[in-house]
Amino acid sequence: MKIGILPIGQADIAITLRIQENLVRIFPDTTCLVIDAKLPLFEKAFDKKRKQYRSSVILSEIQGYAAEKKGLNRVLGVVDSDIFVPELSFVFGEAVCPGKAALISLWRLRPEFHGAASNMELFLARALKEAVHELGHTLGLKHCSRSSCVMHFSNSIFDTDKKQSLFCDQCYLQVALSVNNLG
Ligand SMILES: [Zn+2]
Ligand SMILES: [Zn+2]
Question: In angstroms, what CA-CA distances link 134 with 18, 44, 118?
């Protein structure tokens, strides 16, 4: 599978590079690059009342971008702004399931956001888990009931910290099959 990481707005390039390095270790037969496109954050996605960005609007922009990038199987957008879907107060990410586009937000992943001391490794581990989770959805995976599996739903940062960045055996089988079917 060929994954392109698409930084959007002010997303930190150093973090996207570390995600890139790690994704190829987690997904089978996968290459990954950071797209040098410098897309601005889509202001039409901003909700003035909630002061957050509408996740699905950004995701559909990524989908449009991914449709044109024939050489890539998946495009993972990375934003550093707070994103939401109408039924939840926030989301860590969203994906087309199955599809070519995924999105994660770094906004709530920094320990500082939760009143803790800055910790780059923790921040990176969280970003990686969310990236793997959303890319898992693009391969058709649903949420997994095992709390240590990366496909477990994260309702809060505690859920994210509790799970690993890896798929459980059952989910990994599905990932391997889906990646294989991409050709
Ligand atoms: Zn999910
Ligand atoms: Zn699982």
Answer: 17, 23, 25
Q: Residue 182 belongs to what H/E stretch?
A: none
DSSP reduced 3-state for 80: coil
Residue 112 annotated as catalytic: no
- What is the number of helices (H) and of strands (E) in the chain? 5, 8
CA 42 from chain center: how many Å?
17
The Å distance, Cα 117 to ligand 2 centre, comes to 31
pLDDT of residue 37: 87
d(CA 24, CA 155): 26
User: What does the alpha-carbon distance between residue 92 and residue 79 come to, in Å, rounded to a whole number?
Assistant: 10
pLDDT at 39: 86
The catalytic position among 61, 94, 130, 134 is 134
